[in-house]
Amino acid sequence: MCSILAMACNSSGCESGSCGRDKENGRSKVEEVKEESVCLKCKSNEPMKFGDGGSDDGRFCADCFRSNVYGKFRLAVTSHAMITPSDNVLVAFSGGSSSRVALQFVHELQVKALKNYEASRDRSLPVFGVGVAFVDESAAFPAALSGEMGDAVAWVRSTVLSMSPPEKDLHVVPIESVFALKLLDSVSDETGKEDLLLHLKMLSLQKVASENGYNRLVVGSCTSRLASHVLTATVKGRGYSLSADIQHVDARWKVPIVMPLRDCVWQEITRLCHLDGLKTVELARHPQSGINDLVSSFVALLQEENPSRECTIVRTAAKLTPFYFNKIPETDDSCVPMATQRRLKKFNLKYDGSMTTEAFCPICNGPLNGSDSSEGYHESDNTLYAACCSSCRFQILPQDRSSLEHFGSLLPHHMVSQAKHHQKVDSQTYLREKIKDCLLMDDEEAEAV
Amino acid sequence: MEKGEAKSKKPPRLCCICNERRPVLKRPKTLQQCFYEVFEEEIHQAIVKNRLFKSGERVAIGASGGKDSTVLAYVLSELNRRHSYGLDLFLLSIDEGITGYRDDSLETVKRNELQYGLPLQILSYKEIFFMFFVKALDRGAALLKVDKLVTGHNADDIAETVLLNILRGDIARLSRCTSITTGEDGPIPRCKPFKYTYEKEILIDWFIVVAGIYSPNAYRGFAREFIKDLERLRPRAILDIIKSGEDFRIATTTKMPEQGTCERCGYISSQKWCKACVLLDGLNRGLPKMGIGRARGGGVNGVDHKKETKAGSTVKSLESKQCGSLDF
Asked: DSSP letters of A44-83?
């Protein structure tokens, strides 16, 4: 019987199930079809071609690509309780692609929250607040930036304005508001100068955040940026404090820092900007010839050789033990929804919570290794020298001890006070947290009696 | 081959052996064919008189591809057959890994293999050195009851290893790779292996790293260049990398290889067989590349005996299998 059907079904579309050849034809037809003419995920839309020579080009359609990146953002936010309904979030915006995407995603999250709020009957969950901070570094690079900065700020302002409702406040922070410009001149090491500037930038962000009532600082650091940081930290002898810098949450600061784009790579971010027409501004700096630049070139080279290298680097570093402050602190604050509190508790169980540090470097705020601080320390030594980590001692502090006093006076007051504040308060808070199950509350005790 | 003496002025004689044909060679006054016989017979006599071989022995003929080894290969295989030595003969050639230099000779040796029916083993000199060095180091240290061994460690190499472990995601090795360094105790800090008998394997890995014997430059290219540039910018960065490596907060529960003993030689090994034994075994079985690739399914330590990685691969990649036993 099959022979008649076999003759009839020379075409590949044969439906007669009994024909052995049908399967063959069917299979070969599938093989003929080009691999990526449909999105690999939804299998319906045409894949997006970015033509940037990067990996995975032409595999996903625009929608799936976008939802993939946004999905990573949202997963990071929810699983680390980065942004909860009662929060007031400040987004650090530099004008670059990464922070542009962070701002965009936070905005979209807020829009969604607003929609839900307006749709809900009891209006129980408030919409979190969002502000934007832009640090004006032109004072530090006078020759290079002064001209462009005015335009850049205007552009930032209009961008933030366009992102409402909900409305967002913009805070333009001049970096010299936290330190005396003479300070940078006192640093001879090129890399040290760059790093000090980064620390000062963070300080100014912290300042504007706490002064304006924000309780979260969103930083747009992506996987690629963190990969470079892993290597720069390693080559600067900062292996101990490295794990503190690369987690999703960094709560050693007064206003905890959250990094919702930590799991997104640079390529995804630039592609998304291209896809959605997100404009960015790249401010020209004076050529950086220090270690930071060397490392980013190295990482770029490694990426060419293997596009997943950045991820591997960050994944390796993620295996280092984080610190107790690498999570949003649990709180008994009744304003925080129960769901959030439960999630925090569940998440925090993962950390081994062994606190091995009580001190932080006043300049970089890095947790100090026990052996570090005692290195070469004498009673008569300058207290600033003794308090700093070995990396800051080498690349930031002046090499001759006599200038140390003067240098210390130039440092922002915040740097020293921030460290002290943290040292005192959080170690206590932390200890209390650890033993609270064993503690009897006052009223409990009374009842027992 | 001995050169003949100057031709005598006497009238042409006959071959002193067969007395029939014209002599070709003055000394030993034989014709070509007879020369061969005499030549080979002399060698046979030398072998027998000096009891060079025992029946059943596995004998490697050092084959350089030159005339000496070609002749040797031929003669030995001939004698082995003719006089039934009962030897398991094979050609052993060394590949120094310098392309162009050895290529022609190796071709010759390969031809010898076909011509004389002798199996051919090609080893890189690095592999040889590694195996013998490992054994020598072991035995030497045991003999001298050494508690510590000082090696000419180069901080660059340790720094490079730290970096490579980060780049390759090897957290287990990352936690160990600086553990045998001592603190700085002089103006020029030297890194010394500290606990020889305890971390023997790491030591051996280290020494090879340091000696740079095993690692083809292509494998280390990226990291090495970066380290050099880094050193130029900030010389102390090399030591800072090592410091970072020592300070990394790595959980003690990170899976470390258990310390056991090698079933074959009894020395410390994290696997069933120590690396030296794996390599030697591979050599004995005619699979010199064994133990060089990463452990795969099957085999003693999980090494797939069928798979061999190509020596001299110049892929500039951190995943290159060349240094499997020295994977960072």
From this structure: SSPPP---SS-TTTTSS-HHHHHHHHHHHHHHHHHHTT-S
Those residues whose C-beta lies under 8 Å from the C-beta of residue A315, and which sit 6 or more positions away, are: B169
Q: Is B63 annotated as a binding residue?
A: yes
Give the model confidence (pLDDT) of A254-273 as tens digits.
999 999 999 999 999 999 99
Total residues found in chain A within this entry: 449
Per residue in A157-192, pLDDT tens? 999 999 988 999 999 999 888 888 888 888 999 999
| CB A196 within 8 Å of CB A236 | no
Angstrom distance (rounded) from CA A95 to CA A155? 9
Those residues with Cβ within 8 angstroms of residue A281's Cβ, 6 or more apart along the chain or in another chain: A95, A96, A152, A155, A156
User: Measured between alpha carbons, how far is A106 from B270 in angstroms, rounded to an integer?
Assistant: 50
Alpha-carbon span B180 to A270, nearest angstrom: 43
Residue B171 near chain A (CB below 8 Å) = yes
Query: Residue A91 in contact with residue A214, Cβ under 8 Å?
Result: no
Asked whether residue B157 is marked as a ligand-binding residue, the answer is yes
Separation between Cα atoms, residue A112 and residue A116, nearest integer Å? 6
SS3 B61: strand
CB pair distance less than 8 Å for A291 and B239: no
Distance (Å, rounded) from C-alpha B3 to C-alpha B25?
Answer: 9
CB contact under 8 A, B247 and A394: no
In chain B, DSSP finds a helix count (H) and a strand count (E) of 10, 5
Cβ contacts below 8 Å, chain A against chain B, sum to 98
Min Cα–Cα distance to chain B from A231, Å: 8
Measured between CA atoms, how close is A305 to chain B, in angstroms? 7
Question: pLDDT, tens digit, for every residue of B177-226?
Answer: 776 543 333 222 233 333 333 334 444 454 444 444 444 444 457 788 89
Question: Residue B262 CA to chain centroid, in angstroms?
Answer: 20
B62 is in an annotated binding site: yes
Closest CA to A233 of A274, A275, A292: A292
B245 in contact with chain A, both atoms CB, cutoff 8 A: yes
pTM: 0.64
Q: Are B89 and B80 in contact (CB under 8 A)?
A: yes
* Contact map slice: A 150-189 vs B, CB within 8 A: 189
Task: Report the interhelical angle of A266-276 vs A97-119 (nearest 10°).
Answer: 60
Give this complex's ipTM: 0.81
How confident is the model over A285-311, as pLDDT tens digits? Answer: 666 789 999 999 999 989 888 888 999
The answer to whether A218 and A89 are in contact (CB under 8 A) is yes
Tokens 């006093």 sit at which residue? A405
Partner B, chain A 375-394, Cβ-Cβ below 8 Å: 390-391, 394
- Tokens 């691969």 correspond to B313
DSSP assignment of B148-168, as one string?
-------HHHHHHHHHHHHHH
